[in-house]
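hiii so my PI (J.) wants the whole complex modelled not just the main chain, which honestly fair. so below is everything: three entries, each one labled with what it is. i double checked the lines twice but i was tired so who knows lol
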Amino acid sequence: MVISASLVTWFSGPTLQTAPPIGDWVALTPVLLLGLTALILFVIDSIDPDDASNTPALAGTAAVGTVLALGAAVVLLAAGIGQGQGGALRLYGGQLIVDGMALFFTVIFTSVATLVIVASYDYLADRVYQAEYYMLILLAATGMTLMAAAGSLATVFISLELASLPSYALVAFLKDNRGSVEAGLKYFLIGALSSAIFAYGISLVYGATGRLGLDAIAQQLSGGTQLVGILGVGVLMVAGGFAFKTASVPFHFWAPAAYEGAPAPVSAFLSSASKAAGFVVAFRVFAVAFSPDAVAASVDWTLAFWLLAAVTMTIGNFAAATQDKVKRMLAYSSVGHAGYVLIGLAALNAGQNGLVLGASMIHLLVYGFMNTGAFLFVALAEHWEIGRTFEDYNGLGTQAPIACVAMSVFMFSLAGLPVGGGFMSKYFILVGAVGTGHFVLAALLLINSALSLYYYSRVVRSLWFEDPADSLSIDGYPVGLYAAVIGAAVITFLLLPGIFLASDVATSAASALFA
Amino acid sequence: MASPWIAIGALALVAIAIPLGMMVVSSLLRPTVEEQGKSATYESGEIPTGSTRIRFNIQYYMVALLFVIFDIETVLIFPWTVIYRSAVGSAGLVAALVPMLVFIGVLVIGLAWAWRNGAVRWVKSPRAEQRRQERQRQ
Amino acid sequence: MSVAEASTTAFAFEVAPAIAVLPLASFVIALFAGKYFPKKGALAGVTATGGSLLLSLWVMLTVAGGAYYNEEIYTLVSTPESFDLHFGVLLDPLSALMLVIVSLVSFLVHVFSLGYMNDEGERGLPRYYAGLGLFSFSMLAFVFADNLFMSFVFFELVGLCSWLLIGHWYREDAPPSAAKKAFLVTRFGDYFFLIGVVAVFATFGTATFAGSESFPVLAEEALTDGGAGGELSTFGLGAQTWFTVLGFLILGGVIGKSAQFPLHTWLPDAMEGPTPVSALIHAATMVAAGVYLVARMYGFYALSPTALAVIAFVGGFTALFAASMAVVKRDVKQVLAYSTISQYGYMMLGLGAGGYVAAVFHLMTHAFFKALLFLGAGAVIIAMHHRQDMWEMGGLREKLPVTYYTFLAGSLALAGIVPFAGFWSKDEVLYEALVHGLTDPLLLVAYLMGLIAVFFTGFYTFRMVLLTFHGEPRTHTARNPHLPGWNVKFPLVVLGILATVIGLTNMTPVAEATGLEIEFLHTWLEHGIEGLNSEHYGELLETVAGYSAAELSPLLAAALSLALALGGAGLAYSLYSGDRPDRHTDRLGDARTLLMNNYYQDEYQVWIAETFGTGVARLSDRFDQSIVDGAVNGVSSVSLFSGGRIRRIQTGIVSNYATLLTLGLVALLLVVGLTGGWFL
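here's the output for the full assembly
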């Protein structure tokens, strides 16, 4: 019902009255490029369904598509499209919004997708269904970029599903692997439940306001509403939908299983890009539609995010500290990082919104690279088949020093030590939390970071300081995986001095939401 | 202030209490006789055969999925055809026609891919074939 | 000033950062490409420090033209509403003078190293020259630092470089241990410095040295106006008391780096490093850094009479204490090491006694004559095939004339014999201490200690000269010394000339006697950025610190100290002048044992370290074990426990997940709903 309503709007409503000028299509170039690349992959696979023979063509097309989309997003961002004086571009009657934040996150998604695709070339060698793999990645990326640009709850829902459905299939990609299939099913079931909650939340919000467009909802709510209870339940259920996408407690149950069972590049993609997508849409919906000024008095969703942030980072980090397997540790650490980013939403009530939200955006950017890199290193280890536990990584530094240096950079940057951008971004979040008076969250952030140093440094210790097992041997240095891991490490490192380039963009993009 | 929530809460309590109370009272009053038929699956009077966990051939799902795609396609095309004339009149041919062509084009690519990758090819299961032959032999 | 002139002035200041960057470049070149060069990185170092020297001279000329410079160049962290951390360049007469001194000594040390390291076939040369380059870079950047934070950063870098260079011969036993000692002892002082830097930021919100918003100016306003003091947080103490505390904290770093009592013990051990490194450390870089820091922020210290008195007293005591130990040493470098401690004591005495110009003057002259003495000692060590015991030398005068005469010039300067450099500067320090001491008994005691130290200085200096160069050669090596090359002689000659004449730039007694305007250094330091010149410091000393100078002719004081120096020298001559001097030190009996063992300073510090240190270590270990580890273990056991719980929650059964998810959402709804009052 919701879907068809919005589609009817698409055909009958604003489109007919004001056809978008060419410039508006240009603003959607990254999205269109990703979708088009997915279609090209369909065509290629239809012409020649034999994966073994056209692997380079498939991977190459996918990589070129994401790189072009990345380039387009960077160009648009640099050109100031949808930023500054003109304000955000509203396309199709406000169904899609292209602004600084959308483009910023598009850069994150396309970067992560590029890294993952490059790494997958080696990871997928000699596996079947490669074409489907790349298609699904690209479709999910399309969905994520649409999430970043979604301007009404209808497009939010559709784009969220477009990002989620390929993800379910991707997690279950290793068809013969019990863990992968089981993880995919769990992910799907929890996802279905969360989508149901999310859709129900949307319907309640619609019931309370009679609007689906984010701006329209904000306008409606600025006059206050009689239906506080309905609106409140709706808002929290919508928050629940985002909590699923961002793997925040208590919607995180799928995450450890899915990240561990999925192929490591897919874990990287989901835990970095998909999480960021969940956050960008949450940022937009909560900053614009349920703007804290209008709603917070009756529906104090910042309190909800406060609780979610506190519980999420604590449970994520505590659970990560007790894991034996590196991948599962990373899965829980990913939950913990969601908690850090949630601080940005929890602190949206103290008049420094641009700053705190910008800090969260920067953290997601840095996290996109360092976490992707860490999972891709795990992919490398899986490629070498050396095992999954910390002990299995012992002495890997003697065999693959470069990759291990990269992994050390990721680990320390994730922990928030100044060897990578993670230090600065975490620092920004901390400053934001302190500056808005959320001292408990700031203290929790510090405590959890200290704890996280323990389990991140366990990896580094294994890599460098433990003696390798006699059986440790690695075969070959796969070019694609290496390139992706090293690329991610270099960018993570460069983001330490270069963070200020990104932070200005992020802060101004975040401030524009509240202008 | 008499909140409507109090009434709702009271109703909910009553709603839970009545069935529970009936079950409790009946279990106290009635005699208990163990009998196998009571625990058997109800099959409209038929005696149940085999387990409930039967596997359908996966290919049914494939067809069902394809059907859903065409179903939704119809849902979208139908309102479009209804307003097509007035849309051409107000927005021009291109704005009215091209988006639908793109939409159908995407669907066609998907269909072609599914077809090419054997989604509609009815594969015969070797094991089912074997069983059928065994049954014929008996 | 014409337009063209203005533009060149600005240009000299704009390239000023290159003074420090050039040695940094030589560090990089020597480190990564040193082994491919014919001289293993030496040429890069010589070129770089030569360039620094030229640029420093240019800057000095520009400053002499009346232009000053105080700019931020790179902001590390900037927070609105509070402080920012930045790097900047402050060029005024003091820093311009020091830049020239440091780059000159560094340049000459590089040249000398060609003879001392390359020609002697030492190994690890790229590492050595990289260390020298980094050392020069750190010190030069420290000198033109415009704020305390930047000073601290480069102060620490200087400490790191000293560790690298003292431990250059890391395969032997002694150098690594000496390097560690130098690093740890100075680090002990730097802890206080670090706390001081943080406290300065917390108090003033800035740590810049110059300008109307700098911390000395703010502190001064707080004390003189009274009204502004309310804006500063002095943590419940009175403003002056708190500033004194701050001054003491920073002084901790100064005492460590400038090897003042009781943190001087690292310096004699640091002689284990290559001799050119010793010259660099003692004359221009590491040890000078401490005294320079006090001079740099003298406007702050001048506000606290207590801090000044402590500086003066520590300085005077160190001067005497170290000089007495130098008397009995056998190793030529050990003698010089203790003389360095003693001479820096004089500088501290000068600063504490209100003689800012005198102290800077002594810093300058000492830089030249101590560099000269160390390089001369290095030349002797080359000649003696790396033997350093003076009792194995003797009679080197005929074989090494250039070394002898330059070394003699340096010794005369060190002993304070007219008209060599040290006489003028040391005399002025003592004069300042005396005139201020006549009204302040504590300063007077410090002055007396400094005065007695003059006698010891004269004695040990000439004992060293006589044992090394005079008499009959006492060993085979001394009869056939290895003759040094040009690259050894050139620095000696340059420094020899400077040590002889540099004192003439500031002949206070002569000026007083004749009435001529020849106190060039006084004039030089009187100018400068407002609030950062000796004139202003003089006012502060009088108004805030309450110093007053007695009327006294400098000639009298000069005559007294010269007489004592000559007395010491004469005693040394009478004891050690013959062809075969006796070991008179044995006659000192127990005193000799005491002195040879450096008053058991090392022993008592080790004892302190072992009893208290171990106690503290044990305590902190227990703290670590019980509280920190307890907390960590607690956290980890809690986290293991809760991790187990979470694992139990994470059953792997999807329907459980769905239940928990729904319950979680309901709980969230209840909490937010109850606080939001939806159910009412």
